[in-house]
Inverse folding.
């Protein structure tokens, strides 16, 4: 009897832990998608600054793009550690779909 109760309690604890992790992963995927969108916007601004010969502004935007790139890489590694396959590519695809659906 004790063994059955122990197994039931252990099963409930493991399933609750798995449910809690999925919510965090979905939240992290949304954050990654927003970071990808921000990187694209900053990169576009950087290109505009370069074409208009605003060097100082272009350098600052380039620093932001590099910061976003490092952040995306770290977030991708975190999600891969939690079992998500190709999180960066998925986020880029979702950002592209959101942009097309918005138009």
């Amino acid at each position: 009897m004790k063994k059955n109760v122990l197994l039931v309690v252990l099963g409930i604890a493991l399933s609750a832990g798995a449910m809690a992790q999925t919510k965090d992963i979905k939240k992290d995927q949304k954050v990654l998608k927003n970071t990808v969108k921000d990187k694209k916007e900053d990169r576009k601004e950087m290109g505009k600054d370069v074409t208009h010969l605003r060097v100082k502004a272009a350098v600052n935007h380039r620093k932001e793009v590099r910061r976003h790139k490092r952040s995306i890489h770290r977030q991708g590694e975190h999600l891969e550690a939690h079992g998500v396959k190709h999180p960066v590519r998925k986020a880029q695809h979702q950002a592209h779909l959101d942009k097309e659906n918005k138009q």
The two ends are 62 Å apart (CA to CA). The chain has three helices and no strands.
